Amino acid sequence: MTSPPLLVWRTPAGERRAAWLSHLVPAPERAGAADDRTTAAAALARARRGEALVYGGDYHNARQLLTAMARRLGTAPSDDGRRSPGGRRSARLPPPPARDLTEAFRQERALKRLEHEVLTRLLVPVESGWRIPLTRAPDVAAACEEALGPMPVAPGLLPLRELLGIVGAHEWRRRGVEVPALGARVHPHYGVYAPVRGEYVDLVAAAAAEWPVAGKLAYDVGTGTGVLALVLARAGARVVATDVEAAAAACARENAARLGLADRVEVVQADLFPEGGAPADLVVSNPPWLPAEAASPLERAVYDPGGRFLERLLRALPGRLAPGGEAWIVISDLAERLGLRPPGAVEALAIAAGLAVRDVREARPAHPRVKDREDPLHAARAAERTRLYRIGAALPG
What we know:
Number of strands: 15
Largest sheet: 7 strands, mixed
């Protein structure tokens, strides 16, 4: 195993060295000290010049500094409705005319990339056993061990923003997310997108009731937490759930076992379909719905550069469906409303693959940003629909 890179910085007590422990961002090229006297303006200026700031002082002051830096940067909430660090609304881009939504989206994405790049430069030291040696620092050992495994080397450094995400993910995993269609909770792991937008799950559950899946072999492609696989298994299907990410495969496997469905849900780490898998009666997928670059690994569940995942999935379907088989592709139309994907793109991709859309069902999302009139993309989000495309072989003639 490759040793993590070392960062070197100077403090009043002399030179310090520590290993870079982040799984989200590359090690910065240079670092300097920061403490309770460091102002947000100074910290942000240093971070924007590429310097990482290793905090020494009070943990709660470090969190306040991160919040103040985010506010000065003018970051917006993320696409799933979560607010910037500290939970406060920060400066926002002004709402644009509807015709300028594409440009507003591009500005928002540029801001998110800048946020990720700059705010991950505020670092906290980590000692053996995932202990944070700052005044009033919480015990984060269980959360870090759960997300990152045993600490590889000490001392180390982590972006405070990443640490806060790890702690938050630990609580989500402990409490779980209620899924009404299951009548149960699923428990997302760190780095796995949680099913906070329930309309796509409800669409699949309704489809499984209308077009029964009992006894069928189904694939859930890009399973994430496994929630769609669990819905299909509860409806009587035998499911092979796939995901290219190891964390997602482990998460789906654990959720299936927790709900007593491990005998009906096989989880395989694979890109799209498992090698040598049998033809399926049903393929279900909720692919990333916005054709743009992700600013962080977690955003890969939402952002699909160039729409490549969706295109590869539809092109692969003819060779993976059994005779009479069909696919249910569940995807938001937000990209069309933002001018990022032409209307009818799913239908066109299906036709190009020799398939046809047999039916379309839709639902209105209910996530918080739908009602946020200060959101620069409010006009598109307020009109957004999530659609289930029922796709099968094209009829002759």
